[in-house]
Specification:
The chain is 40% helix and 16% strand. It has 399 residues and is α/β, with parallel strands linked by helices. Strands 3-12-13-14-15-16-17 form a seven-stranded parallel beta sheet. Strands 8-9-10-11 form a four-stranded antiparallel beta sheet, with no helix packed on it. Strands 1-2 form a two-stranded antiparallel ribbon.
Length: 399
Amino acid sequence: MNSRARVLTALRHEEPDRVPIDLGGMASTGIHAVAYNRLKRYLGLGGTTRVFDITQHLAEVEEPVRRRFGVDVIALPRFEVLPGVHNIHWQPWTLPDGSPAEISADFHPVRAADGGWEICSPEGMVLYRMPRNGFYFDPVEAPLAHADPTTLCSLELPRIGDEELRLLRERACTLYTETEYAIVGAFGGNLLEMGQSLRGWTQFMIDLASEPDWLEDFLERITEMWMESLARYLDAVGEYIQVIQFGDDLGGQQRLLISPAMYRRLFKPRHRRMYEYVHAHSNCAVFLHSCGAIYELIPDLIEAGVDVLNPVQTSAAGMDPARLKREFGDRSVFWGGGCNTQYVLPRGTPAEVAADVRERLRIFAPGGGYVFAAIHNILPEIPPENVVTMFDAVRGSTD
């Protein structure tokens, strides 16, 4: 059974020959470039590391690493990663730990007063900042935090452009015909997160709580943008990809970020429109990345058309893996949940990492409907020996 067939079998809720493995199939199953350089040194691998996700500083996982860990998934990432910044041409970059990498040649941050880096808008607004000795670009200012309702409801949001669609189609065709990997297309479709990005996290949560007259029109504007892009995206790559990835973080560590009633009223109908469009116009599985304590909303997400849930943050409240598998394992594919990246993977011994992986496989793997990945990205401080142990434990338990 090759990798694509293995993943498709799991998506059908059948048991493949072994549990499928993901590393770097999307921007929440990846590895920070600092950790990736350390991992390659540990494995005796060379090659230049490319940072494909600038804000999270995620590495583009290379073929020798995929082969070493038996990875079954490959990403079809967006070429435009920030407005005007494309992953087509590359330039040298120094990572926060001083090790070398490459980053988009369109990326031109400015030095901050503390020696870190800032990403600014053409008007000079600081949008993201990586502090000195930091590892990520954190959001700073939201472009529409103080915009008036007329501006918000007449907003012209960027659609996927013709040139990017051409590049995505070429890349998707190449991956489909020249590899046997299951292909995950990074689409987006964020509604809650888009509002937070445009208005600022705090301000948009105030907007939701106060529900001004313009709120529904604003959300509808965002949804219409995504629906138009979704149709064009599926026309370009839908015949080649097996999974289309959406994202909306609905939970925090202890509870939902919004109430179930608010989700059902404002977001679920709009999510459903996108997810049903995918099912009506392709054979792709709908993959939703949603962090945190989302147990209460899982039935709603399934009803809205979600086939795959990620990252399966089992360390969050209410997200007990056995409970998730028992209650939803016949209706939802769990993609993640494979090792505790908050506590075990960064702090545990290799033996503790292996034990954690084996226990999660025991729970999630029976009956199919499971793809192994760590719970979110592998962070800079995670020891390379623990990364190796994690993936070797999957292969050792399932081969």
